[in-house]
Structure formats: C-alpha cells, structure tokens
Specification:
- This protein has 68 residues and is mostly helical.
- It is 38% helix and 0% strand.
- The chain is built from 2 helices and no strands.
- The relative contact order is 0.09.
Amino acid sequence: MLGKEYNDMGLVFAQLNGNPIQPSEVAKKFLKIIEAAGLLRIRFHDLRHTHATLMLQQGVILKWYLNA
C-alpha cells in the first residue's frame, strides 16, 4: 500500500512502513496472542527451542554456525 515509501528490508517482523520492530514489541504481542488463545505462557524465544527439538526428533541434522 505504501509503494515506494515502504522500506523493504526483508524482515519477518516489521513496522507497517517496513522498518525494524523492537524485539520487546514482538514478545508483548506474542504474549497477548497466546493468552487470548488460552495457551501455556511461554517466551517467543522458546519457539526456537521447540522447533529445534521437533526437527531433531524427526532426524533432521542441525548445523550450528557460530559468529567467531
């Protein structure tokens, strides 16, 4: 809708204009969603660990790259 005014940075989570959103804002919105759904309260970051665990259970080989 913003056309050339949209700042496409290829982000998963962004403000309406495409600029980065603060991680704390993502976490706040996530908590509101899971509470409204009546789900167990977890941190947004916990999804990463759950995803890795599920992948390992399925036999997916995970490669970890560290910034040295």
